[in-house]
Structure formats: C-alpha cells, structure tokens
Design a protein that fits this description.
This protein is mostly beta strands and 1123 residues long. The chain has a domain at 23-106: Phage tail protein beta-alpha-beta fold (3-Layer(bab) Sandwich), CATH 3.55.50.30. The protein contains 15 helices and 56 strands. A hairpin with a 5-residue loop joins β39 and β40 (780-782).
C-alpha cells in the first residue's frame, strides 16, 4: 500500500511538471529578433508582436518607470524574452501564443490598493481552456467571466481570495499576490461527474446519480447552417431517428422520432418542452441555438413517466440561458451569409428525343401511326422557332440553381445581485429557388421569401436569499411570401407537362389584352396545364406569430426543513396565422396553325382553349384565411433534496393542468371546445454513498377525450443503478475505467392522442346522407339517418410498457461511452375495426376500439472522446448509432391471404408485388400466368404468382398478389460520426451522417400516361427495353402510350434501397482575440446506391422541393469588458 501511494505521488509530480513546464519553455514558434539602441520594454514588445503571432498581456503601469536598454538578440522566443526582461523585475508566462507579464514580488508596491490580476483557467485533465468560468473576489457578489481563450482580468487587493467556479468542476479558491499571474486548474467535480442534466419538469439531476436513459447535447453541437433546428438532430442524438423530406424554406424541418415509432394510428412525435411550456415541432425549428442553455432527450419510462399522458413517445427538454452576476454585460454578435443549391436536379430529355420516344411508345403498342413527323422532329431539334417548334424544359423555366440566405443574432447577458437578464434577437432571411417569372408579366415577386424574427428575453429577480421570480418570454414572428400553387403541384408540373406541345406563352399579337399561355391541345381542357402560368397567376402572404410567456416563482423552505423547495409555473402560449392571397385567372391557348414567309418570318394562328369557351378575368382577386390556438398551463412543484451522511434523498410532487383552445373560423363546434388535461406526478430517488441508486416515478393523469371511468390513467416506473467504479475493489482499474455504471428501468407510459376525432365514446349521426345498405349481397338500402361513427364508451389510453438496460462507461478519463437496450410493448392502440361484415348495416359507418398492439425494440449508442495533445492540439470525436425496429403484434383485419396480415410486419412498410424481370419474347408471355392488364408484350414486367407460392389454388396474377417489403420507409438505423480538431487558434470539424434498413418506392414518373403526356427522365431513355435493347433486366420496361396497368404497379421493380451516408456538416474557423471567422457547409456530399435524387426525400418521382446544399460564411464577436 505504501509503495502504491508513493507511485501515485510520483505520478502526480510528473503530471504537474508536464502541465507547468511548457508554460515557460514552449516558445518553439520560430526565430525572433530584437535589435536597437535604448529600446524600452514597450518598444521591444511591439517589435515581437509585429514580427510574430505572439500577443502580450500586462499591466501598463508595471512598465512605465523602467528604462530602455540596448538589445541585440535573436533566437527562440524563450531566449529572446530572457534577455529582454533581464534585470527588469518583470517575469513572464507563455500560454500558447499569449505572453502574460508579471511584476516580481520584490518590485511590487507594498501599498494595499487594488491591482489588476491577469490569469487563465484550464481543465486540469485536458489542459483545455475553460470558457465562461466565473471569477470573483470572495465575499464580493460581482465578478468576471473567462473569455473564449479561458483568460480573465480582475481587480483585487493583495491578500484577497479569488473564487473560480464552473458547472461540472470543483470550485477553487486562490489567494491574490500582487503582480502574480495566475494559471488556475479546475478539477472535475467527482460528485457532479461532468455535468448536471435537465430532466423531467426542469429538475436538474447529477449525471452520476441518474438511472434513467437521458442524453444531453451541448448547444454548440446544434449550430449547423440551417434555419430549422431539427436538421441538426440526425446522427448527433443517440436514440433519435430524424429524416429531412424537403428543403422548402420555412417548411424544411426534419421528421423525428425518439427511439423510432411505437404506434401506428396515434401521435408519434415526442413531447417538446421549452422552459416548462409545451411547444410544437415548428416552434422548435425556429429556436436559435444561441439561446439554448440545456438540451436533453428523455428516452425511457423513468425519464418520461412523470409526464403521463404526454410522455409516451419521449420528451425533449430545452432550457434557455439566464443572466449572470457580473460587472459588465457580455454581448455576443453573429452574422452569416449562405449560398444554397439543390442537392439533386432532375434531367429530362430534349424535345426531339421526347418525340422519338413518344412515337416508339405507339409502335410498341402495335400502332402504325407516328404522331410526330420527321419534319416536326427535325424542326424541334434544329430550334427553328420556339412557338412553332416548342422545346420547353419546364423545370428550368420554373427553378433556378442558387439562392442566398442571411442570419443575424445579437444577445446580451448580464446582471447584478438582485436582477440578472439574458436577451437575444435573431433575424433569418431565406429565399427560394423559384424563378421570379411574375415580374415578366405582373408587378409582384412570388418566389418564396421567408423572414423570421425570434426574440428571447429572460429575467430573474432575486427577492431575497431564498426567493426568485423569473419571467421567460419567447416571441417568434414569421412572414412568408410564396406562390398560390403548392410546391408539390409546382414541381409535379415540371414533369407532367409535355415539352413540345406548346410554348410557355405565345407572342403578343397587339390585339389580345391578356397573356396567351400555351397549353397542350391533345388533352381535354380540364387536364391542360401550364406550370409557369399557374406560378405567375397569384401569390399569398402569410404572417404567423408565436408567443410563449412563462412566469416562475421559486421559494426555498429551509426554515421548515433543509432542502425543501417550492416552485410554481404559470404559462401562456398563443399561436396565430393569417394568410392573405391574391389569385387571377389565366387564358389557355394552343397553336392552330402557322406559316413562314419568304423572309423566314413566322405567323401564328392561336385558339382560345378555356373550359368556359370564353376569356377569363386576369384581375387579382383577394382572399383571406385565419387560424390559431392558445394554451394555458399551470404547475406547482414541491421538491425535497437532502444528504444525510452517505444517504442522498430526493422527493418531488407535482400538480399540473393544461388547456388548449383552438380558434376556428368555421362551424365545427366540437373542434372548438377546449382540450383539457389534469394530473399529478411524483418522484422519489435514493442513493447510498454514490454507489447504489434507486428511483420511483409515477404520473396520474386525466384526459377529457374519454368517457367517465376511463379518463384517468396511472403510469408508474422504477429504476435502479449501480456505480461500480465507486467501489473500493474497483480502484486498481480506474487508470483504465474512470467510471462505470449500469442501470435498468421498467415503467408504463400513456398516450391520449390516439388518432381519430374527439370524444370517440360518443356516436355521430349523419342526417343528410342516403341511408345505409345491408343484406348478404349488399343490395338493400334504407333511407334515413345513419350512424357515421358508433360511440365506444370503453375507448381509453394507449399504454406503453417500457424496459431499458444501460451502461455508462468512461475510459482513460477521455472516452465516454453510453449504451442502452430498449424494448417497448404498446397496447390498446386505437384502430377502426376491419372484421365487421357490411351486411350488418355498417357500410360507411366507422367502428373504433383499442384493438391493436405493437412492440418496438433496439439499442442506441453514443461515444464522446476528448483529448489534449501537447500544448497546441485538441482533438475530440463524437459518434452515435441508433437501431429501432417495430413490429405489429395485434391488428383487427381480414386479409384476403394470411401472408398479407399486418401482424408481424413493421409500421410504414410498403406492400409490393414481386417481379421476375421483363418478358423476354411472345412465348414467354404466352407460357406465363395471366398477368395484370391486357396486351402484354416482350419488355413488360413479369410478376410472380405469390398466392400460388403460398399454396393457394390460383393461376392468375392480379393486384392481390402482393407481399410486404423487407424494410420500412422510415429508417431503422441512423448513425453519425466525426472529429473536431483545434490547433492554436485554428479549428476544423466535419460530421458524417447515415441511415440504413430503409426503402423507397418510385412512382408517378412513367412517361406519357396519366392523362398528362408526361415528360421523360433521361435515366429512363438511357436504359429502357426496346427492340434495340432487349435486356430483360433493363432499368425501365418498354414504353407505352397509355400508362400500362401492368408496368406501373407498386412492385419490387420500383423498390429501391434508400440507405445513404452524407457529409452532413463541415466547418473551418479561425479565432483572433474575441472574434471568430468561419466557413461551414451542410449536405455537402451524398453516397448512396440510389442515384436519381436525394434518397432522404423518400419515394415518388423526385419532383419535390429538394434538400439544399449549403455553403455558409460567418463571423462571430464577443464583447466582454469584464476581463
């Protein structure tokens, strides 16, 4: 034992020498030269600063009385400084590129007056600067905050004691010595074990004593170049499945789920709490990471059970920053400019190729006609005239390749003993990729233009030693201008409109008073479209506001018993939206004839093609729509937290009530009724000697959505933990395993947002319908009122039973690992019955009940590595992995074939037919089972007779021959990883994010059909089956004029693996004093087996608003005059 203690003492001595020795001998920065006659120390300092990267920090009065001297020195910085300051009474400390001067004790004044103390604060383990540490004189309330380099300057009297503190570290006291330069090393607080994590109802729990599955993320990790906060989640938060389906400004937030999907009909999104108030995912997206102080994900029942009805799908807890008791306010400023471009762009064939392919499609169908003559094709290919021979790339007519966005934030933080404050303003401007075609015809710009303003104001008033009153106000304003046509319809128009049937518009004939928009006369008037005309003929302005105000009072009740505390929160949230629109009619024309004179001048005869037969008004007609809601919430908490020797006890009791009122401007009285919830919750936790941990939680909640007798639900949970590393026998292993904790939990959670209309225990009756049908053959109809929904008074909560087992591990004081296995069984899932025969008279009537069940299981993993290498390098690495697989275990259904039952399948999984390549020749068609549709030929898709394979007597392949695909359309695996590297003032980071076990189904892209004469994508033209390319594994089957029922079925022929890995983010920055310059990017590269568009956008034809590649240029500055 004595030898062990001796070795440990030597180890500490070596660590101290490593930490301190480089401070005076670490100047290997190149050679420095100082030469001159009678050079003062200030002049010498300027020479060194101007010829190197070194900067000096000193008290000017220390150098004023010192004489100049002759200098002729050259060499390493340590050698030069030694000669410059020889005999001056000034000593120095080198910290990287910074040199701090100090007045030696023998030269210091003996007068007891305040002097400036210069110093720095670092992590004792890593040597990393501690930014934001509080430095104050003991028994004095005000103080200063360390800057971005961990340095500080404070005025104090020799003999005073400085108190240095920071969350997660042991508070340290250092005595002031006049002229002494301080290097303060903070040691991690073993009791706090890195950090305090915000958990249920805003209560902070020490990470060491937590037994629930909770992940906290540093707000800095959420700072990515995106206006939507949720786009930073994927791959960074273990346990969170997140996918971004669109890049549309103002609507590009990700869909996200905590530990996947556990229900099929009700709400799947997690509960989101901002400063104690429930907010929507849209509100979350508008938050600026600059205002966030804490961000936690509650994943298991122990963490979420206290929320009862609202916590079934996990909880996100966000707290915003508060002020600080400092001398002068700290001001932070950030400005960014972004260039955005689509991550993918569809490629279409040119007009002449389209004509050739269209003729080919008719020949494939047995026709001898060629609608497009060789003359027309040649004229189009030669581009003779854009009106006589149109060749329109509608995508290029509608969309541009780049947009420019701006972000701005300024925040201020300060306060005193009685009041502190934090205030932030964010302005975000986004523009879309839509070309401003309206300016060519009208006086408005209907490109997407989104202006967002976000305000956060937090005030804490300390009414006494034990009382605090806080007001937190979050205001979000958004103004959006965009076309009247939806983005889905606009992008669909780019593919659904023929490139050769009409120009965008015909030239002005000098007679017509309106624009003559071109349309396709091969289609019926109701099917004709011109996406540019639809884009240009109207716009809408939307203004929406969200105000979240929370007033919180906290009173410590130590006069009753030590550790007792009371908190009350009252909040109000108001959301409103107003849309003003203007729309105009547009006149459709097609080319009836044209002629060309001897000079090559074209003349056109056009014909009006409106459905009405006459002209329509092009005057803008206004419209308005309003919506909104408001929420009132109240909670009261009694909290007890106390330590008795080795026993830590915490107890909490909560009462809460919530009311949501939807403002409707229609006659739906049921929907306008307030939605109310009420409940109580409690927690009791116990820890012995920091080793043995236990926690019990419960929520007892009521919802007005159910009938009496079913409105209240009880949701308990229990968890235990074991800090093995705190045991004495573990001591020899601590050099490797710095910390090890195992934990396990079980609990019930509820969900009252079960889908369907409200008050499903009450029936609804249709008085205006046609009656109901009954009879074995469904041929008897009775007139009169009919139930549109039968009431079910037994309907109640969805209930999830959650189990979690986790391991927290720290290796070598540098690598933190968290691993969790989870399993949930969700029962009483709300579902419409599928097994009631319609001859009972239920045709058209819905019957609901708690009929279905699911299970969801998987694991998530997080790794976080931090290491200082030498004095100039710091490296960190972060990685996460999440796997969540769900399976339906019970479902009320009556499938045609047993193998088509949903039981045993995942939610969000597509049904598909199974193909066997393409028909090789007519004999192959003849010798195969009867297929879907008629007139099958070589080059058509051949389907497998699935029902016969499963033993059913069926020789016909029809739309009933389908199976479930292997993978769902929501990924089951999400992962991310990437390093962050800093060398001196230069920093660099990148982050990869990927998904796996996910599929997409391609659809709505088949050429020519669907009554639209749809355009042809180049990948179809390049590898289609044709008489010249009789490849039975071709990418696309033979072309046909009308959409082939056979070839367009949802099948594995159109099923694709949507897995990908992206270079999601990269950033390089440089810090100079209190300023930082940086360049960053998002969605920089995608690697996937699917090549046609960004697979993250999901299925379809890729014609939707694409996700954006972002290049971001930023500048950040902090003004901190407390140094």
């Amino acid at each position: 034992m004595k030898e062990s203690m001796c070795s440990r003492w030597h180890l500490r001595l070596i660590v101290l020498l490593i930490l301190f020795f480089p401070l005076t001998l670490s100047a290997a920065q190149g050679r420095v030269t100082v030469k001159g006659q009678s050079i003062t120390l200030r002049q010498a300092i300027k020479i060194i600063e101007s010829s190197s990267n070194f900067k000096f920090f000193f008290n000017p009065s220390d150098l004023d009385a010192l004489p100049g001297k002759n200098l002729d020195c050259e060499g390493e910085i340590s050698d030069v400084l030694k000669e410059v300051f020889a005999g001056s009474g000034i000593s120095y400390v080198i910290m990287g590129d910074d040199i701090i001067l100090k007045l030696e004790k023998k030269a210091a004044s003996t007068q007891q007056k305040k002097v400036e103390i210069v110093g720095g604060v670092v992590d004792a383990r890593s040597g990393e600067s501690v930014v934001g540490a509080t430095v104050r004189v003991k028994d004095v309330n005000s103080g200063v905050i360390t800057d971005m380099d961990g340095k500080f300057t404070i005025k104090a009297t020799p003999g005073d004691v400085l108190v240095i503190s920071y969350i997660g570290y042991e508070t340290k006291e250092v005595k002031v010595v006049n002229g002494k330069v301080l290097l303060v090393e903070l040691v991690e607080d073993a009791k706090q074990l890195e950090e305090v994590v915000v958990t249920a109802y805003g209560s902070g729990q020490k990470k060491a004593s937590m037994v629930g599955s909770v992940q906290a993320i540093r707000p800095a990790e959420l700072q990515v170049p995106s206006a939507s906060l949720s786009n930073s989640f994927a791959g960074r938060l273990a346990g969170v499945i997140a996918v971004q389906r669109t890049g549309q400004p103002g609507a590009d937030g990700s869909d996200f789920y905590i530990r996947g999907i556990s229900t099929m009909n009700g709400a799947t999104n997690p509960l989101i709490i901002l400063d104690g108030v429930e907010i929507s995912s849209g509100d979350l997206d508008n938050l600026d990471p600059e205002i966030i102080d804490g961000f936690s994900i509650l994943k298991d029942a122990t963490a979420t059970a206290m929320y009862g009805t609202r916590g079934a799908n996990g909880v996100m807890i966000i707290t915003t920053k508060s002020g600080r008791n400092i001398d002068k306010p700290i001001i932070n400023f950030r400005v960014e400019g972004q260039i955005t471009s689509p991550t993918s762009k569809p490629k279409f064939v040119d007009g002449a190729t389209y004509m050739d392919l269209f003729n080919e499609s008719l020949l494939n169908g047995g026709s001898t006609e060629s609608p497009y003559s060789a003359e027309e094709i040649a004229g189009t290919r030669a581009g003779l005239n854009p009106y006589a021979y149109p060749n329109v790339n509608w995508y290029d007519e509608l969309f541009k390749d780049q947009a420019f966005n701006q972000n701005f934030n300024v925040n201020i933080r300060g306060g005193g003993k009685r009041v502190d404050y934090f205030s932030s303003v964010t302005v975000n401007h986004e523009t879309g990729m839509i070309k401003n075609r309206s300016k060519d015809f009208f006086s408005y710009n209907n490109n997407i233009n989104v202006m967002r303003y976000s305000f956060q104001n937090n005030i804490n008033a300390y009414l006494g030693k034990d009382s605090r009153l806080s007001l937190r106000l979050n205001v979000q304003l958004r103004k959006t201008k965009q076309p009247n046509i939806s983005m889905n319809d606009l992008f669909a128009g780019a593919i659904n409109t023929s490139p050769v049937e009409a120009p965008v518009y015909f030239p002005d004939d000098g007679v017509t008073t309106h624009i003559k928009w071109g349309v396709n006369d091969r289609l019926k008037p109701g099917q004709q479209q011109n996406p540019v005309a639809q884009l240009a003929s109207g716009y809408q302005d939307n203004f929406r506001s969200t105000v979240v105000a929370a007033l919180e009072f906290e009173q410590k009740l130590n006069f009753i018993t030590e550790g007792l505390r009371f908190k009350a929160l009252a909040s109000f949230k108001n959301w409103s939206s107003t849309t003003n629109s203007a729309s105009a009619g547009w006149n459709k024309y097609h080319l009836q004839d044209f002629s060309v004179d001897d000079n090559g001048v074209y003349s056109f005869v056009t014909r009006l093609q409106n459905e009405s037969g006459g002209e329509v008004s092009t005057d803008l007609k206004p419209g308005v729509a309003n919506s909104g809601d408001r929420r009132f919430y109240f909670q009261a908490i009694m909290d007890y937290n106390r330590t008795f020797g080795k026993h830590d006890v915490n107890a909490m009791f909560i009462y809460n009530q919530d009311e949501l009122v939807t403002q409707l401007f229609s006659g739906d009285l049921i929907a306008a009724l307030p939605k109310r919830k009420q409940g109580v919750a409690a927690r009791l936790s116990y820890a012995y000697d920091g080793k043995y941990l236990a926690e019990v939680n419960m929520g007892y909640n009521g919802s007005e959505n159910f009938a009496k007798g079913h409105r209240w639900g009880f949701f308990p949970s229990i968890a235990v933990g074991y800090n093995i590393s705190e045991e004495a026998f573990f001591e020899p292993l601590k050099n490797v395993f710095s910390n090890m904790k195992i934990r396990a939990s079980w609990g019930l959670v509820g969900n009252d947002n079960i889908g369907g209309a409200r008050f499903v225990y009450m029936p609804t009756i249709n008085l205006t319908g046609t009656g109901y049908t009954t009879g074995l053959d469904g041929d008897i109809t009775y007139k009169g009122p009919v139930y549109s929904r039968y009431g079910n008074p037994e309907v109640t909560w969805e209930v999830g039973k959650k189990v979690n087992v986790g391991l927290d591990l720290q290796l070598f004081n540098s690598l933190n690992l968290t691993m969790d296995y989870f399993h949930e069984t969700r029962t009483d899932i709300f579902q419409e019955r599928g097994t009631i025969p319609q001859y009972l008279g239920t045709a058209g009537t819905k019957v609901f009940g708690n009929l279905a069940a699911m299970k969801n299981q998987g694991f998530d993993f997080a790794a976080d590595f931090n290491k200082k290498i030498g004095k100039d390098w710091f490296i960190s690495f972060k990685g996460t992995f999440t796997y969540a697989h769900n399976e339906i275990t019970k479902y009320d259904e009556s499938p045609k074939y047993a193998f088509q039952s949903k039981v045993g399948q995942s939610a969000n999984i597509p049904s598909i037919m199974i193909s066997d390549g393409l028909f090789k020749d007519p004999d192959d068609v003849k010798n195969s089972n009867q297929q879907i549709g008629g007139n099958l030929s070589a080059g058509d898709i051949k389907y497998v007779n699935i029902s016969k394979l499963y033993g059913y007597d069926d020789d016909i392949v029809d739309i009933s021959d389908w199976v479930w695909a292997k993978n769902p359309t929501v990924p089951e695996i999400v992962y991310g990883f990437g390093p962050s590297i800093r060398w001196k003032n230069l920093d660099f980071s990148f982050f990869f994010q990927g998904v796996a076990k996910v599929s997409l189904v391609m659809s709505d892209f088949h050429p020519f059909g669907d009554n639209s004469l749809r355009n042809v994508l180049t990948w179809i033209a390049d590898d289609r089956w044709s008489p010249d390319n009789q490849n039975i594994n071709a990418t696309y089957p033979r072309l046909t004029r009308d959409t082939s029922v056979n070839n367009t079925q949802r099948s594995d022929y159109w099923l694709r693996n949507a897995a990908f890995i992206k270079l999601k983010n990269a950033e390089i920055g440089y810090t100079y004093k209190n300023m930082r310059f940086y360049v960053s990017g998002m969605n920089l590269a995608t690697f996937s087996p699917f090549k046609h568009w960004d697979p993250e956008q999901g299925g379809g034809n890729g014609l939707k608003y694409p996700t954006q590649r972002v290049f971001n240029f930023g500048f950040q500055m902090t003004i901190n005059n407390n140094r």
